Amino acid sequence: MIVGFVSKTPAGTYRANWRDSADRQKAKTFRTKKEANAFLAEVEGALNRGTYVDPHAGRMRFGEFVTRWLAGRSVEARTAERTQSMLRAHLLPQWADWPLAKIDYLAVQEWVTNLGRTLAPSTTAKHLGMLSMIMQTAIRARLIAVNPCEGVRVPRNRAREARAGTISREAFFGRLLPAVPAEHRAIVCAAAGAGLRWGECAGLPWEAVDLDRGLLHVAQVAVETHGGVLLRAYPKTRAGVRTVPMPPFLVDELRRRCGAAVPDARALVFADRDGGPQRRSNFRRRVWLPSLVRAGLLGRVAEVAPGRWAASWPDRDGREQRAEFADEAAAVAHVAASAFGGLRFHDLRHSYITWLVTDGVPVNVVRRVVGHEKASTTLNRYTHTPDDYADRVRLTFADDSLTFRPAPRLTDPGNTALPGPEAHSGKGRPPSGGDGGRREVRLRGGRAEPTQRSRGVQPPRVCCRTAYERLS
């Protein structure tokens, strides 16, 4: 089917003329007749395949299209805030005035490479993913034909990629937990003893806790927005709805928090002073970071003389900073506000998963307990090598480590050689050796070897027993 024709213009160029899928007349000018005919062939193929895109539609600017894209989305409040933040920070400053059709692969790759110089690879990948999602929507709207983000590579800068931390059980119970104020220990235990996310802790109601059976049910979560903290009746994913067994130390902490009175079933377990869900930022600043400092897990505070407290902490560049204060509280507050890094509250969830996997709990069971949809997420993102991994590997083989006990060869002085015919027939028995014992033999590959039922001499044996200490 002929969809158009080529005509020569007075200026000596060639105009491709065609009708689109809506039977509207379209035209585009080219330098040569060959280029115009090639373009018409592409248009004809696209119309036949149903993938035709008006070449003039891509003139819409990226910023204008993003406004329409946002208006048609229906997402959670927190997701909408993250989207707006990423658009304001990096996407709109770069692409707002670009026509959609002018955004090509090379331009996107250059932008991503520049982002990678200041952002972590994971953050860079999120920005690329959002741009790709917007351009894919433009394809569905028949504004562009291809996604310029396809094939773009995110630069890897492993030295800048932040690695999630963990804490050993000894350090958690011996250092961190005693440093946490008593009224906040239960929420810390919920993260380390049940693997709950912050939102799952902050949104946990008493009706979801069964202290007698040692179980808690995760469903309602708290979601932070710029306008406050909202309660949502469902968690991050479908797999997040789960029932988690509680260890005894968590049950004890919750009983102490509950007290003698029966709390309101709808009340939050870890509510703030007004009865609402806590904000993560407030908890981190007022409780979490000072607790890390007091535990010696972030910076260092020590009394050097009566009324003099020395503090040291790492800054953003890794350099150690020092100062002196008149009292411990001021020193702890300063280090908590100034130090860079340190264990995150979410790292307690990482630690919980690492403890379970290290103790031999099947990964698929761990996946269900912590609410992951895929076991690969549990293994690749949340399981970390413990600091004492070398000792654990050695301890695995500490008892009967690869014990090898070879059986005496048939030509040993204490054994008499077997008669050929009887040995090959498999019916004869060798004469007794120096110790008077009898052994059965079997022909294997032209050689007579003792069977597992041989008496007096045991076959080669490899023994391996797994053993390691568990924290009570």
Automatic annotation (TrEMBL):
Core-binding (CB) domain ranges (all copies): 60-139
Keywords, ordered alphabetically? DNA recombination, DNA-binding
List the Gene3D superfamilies. 1.10.150.130, Intergrase catalytic core (1.10.443.10)
Please indicate if the UniProt record lists Ribosomal protein as a keyword.
no
What family is this protein classified in?
Belongs to the 'phage' integrase family.
Name the record gives this protein:
Site-specific recombinase XerD
Q: Where is the Tyr recombinase domain?
A: 162-395
Q: Which GO terms describe its biological process?
A: DNA integration; DNA recombination
* One Gene Ontology MF term: DNA binding
Location of the region described as Disordered in the Swiss-Prot/TrEMBL record: 404-472
Q: Which InterPro entries match?
A: CB, DNA_brk_join_enz, Integrase-like_cat_sf, Integrase_catalytic, Integrase_recombinase_N, Tyrosine_recombinase_XerCD
- Indicate, by first and last residue, each region the UniProt record lists as having compositional bias (Basic and acidic residues): 436-452
- Pfam families from the xrefs? Phage_integrase
